[in-house]
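Subject: sequence -> structure tokens, single chain

Hey, anyone have a minute? Need the predicted structure for the following. Not urgent.
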Amino acid sequence: EDIVDTGHTAKFLVDFINQNYINPSVYMNAQYYLKDYYASCGFKEVGEPFDEAGIKHIKMVLKKHKNIFS
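Reply:
Had a minute. Here:
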């Protein structure tokens, strides 16, 4: 069974962030090809794509306590 396809990985990611980070929002530089996956976890795109270490990225933010799995 592929854990990503079942949604368990996304739920774990959001739960981990909500339980372990005190900031109201979590930002990350996501590899661009994964932006849709992170969007399915509740992250929103911020700004325009950019190059980081020769790889296309996009800044994304997750507002804490907005758990899409509740």
